[in-house]
Write the structure tokens for this entry.
Amino acid sequence: VLRDRIRDAATADPRREYPIGAVADGITWTRIFLESRPDDVLGRMSCIDPDTVDNDDDGASGCGVDCDDGDDTVYPGAPETCNGRDDDCDGLIDNHPDCPHCQEHAAPLGGTLLYCFWPLNYLDAEADCVAQGGHLASIHDAGTQDTIAATALGIVGQNWWIGANDLDSEGTFTWTDGTPFDATFWADGEPNNADGWENCAHLASWAGGRWNDIPCDYSMYYVCYAP
């Protein structure tokens, strides 16, 4: 299949430098070379013909199309079933009007943490937290930091807003709920106000959930705290 596709593309190329026969032979010898490699290389070459990769037999290729090729209920266009997963492979969790957009978990020191997975910018995320009776989460101890980071990244390994910002005074971070800024868990080298406009803090997936400052207009998941 791949050989035919490349041959067709080469035939249609008005600027090809080699005859069609040479192109076809090159494809054949490349496949022979790859197929003679050890298994560890062959495994990494499974997507040489994407149409043949569908481990869960759901009709969607596991090569960059099906976001979970081990589950036949997950594929592009699948119905969202409010299960805390991205069933339809659009990059969003439970994005159906009938699905709740936050998961509730007990906070370590009382109250409720809401892990919300419909991405919003910082100010809109704070507004949604307020509408739910709270604010973007403030963090005052290592136990709460560890719990929030582990839970958030366990839901989806991406960035999550928390309530810290220095919008009022550059370099002086405060919490949206007005509580004291009495503990910090910044990633190495942060906050750095890169390019002069990083005023809002998030749990950075690349730092295991430690904090990073970033522009407030980015859209991402967010953690609310409600007493």
